[in-house]
Amino acid sequence: MIPDAKDIGGEIGIHGVPDGMDHWIDAGQDWTWGCIALKNADVNEIYPFIVPQRTILVVDP
Questions:
Q1: Rounded to an integer, what distance in angstroms lies between the CA atom of residue 41 and that of residue 23?
Q2: 37 touches 17 (CB < 8 A)
Q3: How far apart are CA 35 and CA 37, in angstroms?
Q4: How would you class 43 by CB atoms within 10 Å of its CB: exposed for 0-12, middle for 13-18, buried for 19 or more?
Q5: Alpha carbon 42 to its chain's center
Q6: Distance (Å, whole) CA 28 – CA 1
Q7: CA atoms of 20 and 4, how far apart (whole Å)
């Protein structure tokens, strides 16, 4: 859940982490500006299924 005091910016992206920084995901590090951050291997796994401007993402916490 995004805290009320948190500004999520104008867009929400899905992206990986800088090389060697997968531990940010494991630790739940809050480092994006409202985006959904994944390990790079996970981004590579979902990339073939994404169609720009057409894919709908439902986040179910």
A1: 13
A2: yes
A3: 6
A4: middle
A5: 10
A6: 13
A7: 31
The type of residue at 26 is D
CB 9 within 8 A of CB 2: no
Residue matched to tokens 């790079």: 40
Report the b/e string of 13-30 with b at 16+ CB within 10 A. Answer: eeebbeeeebebbeeeee
What sign has the CA pseudo-torsion 42, 20, 15, 30?
positive
What tens-digit pLDDT sequence spans the chain (61 residues)?
A: 566 776 666 677 889 999 999 999 999 888 887 788 999 999 999 999 888 878 777 777 6
Q: How far is the C-alpha of 9 from the C-alpha of 42, rounded, in Å? A: 24
Structure tokens at 31: 């480092």
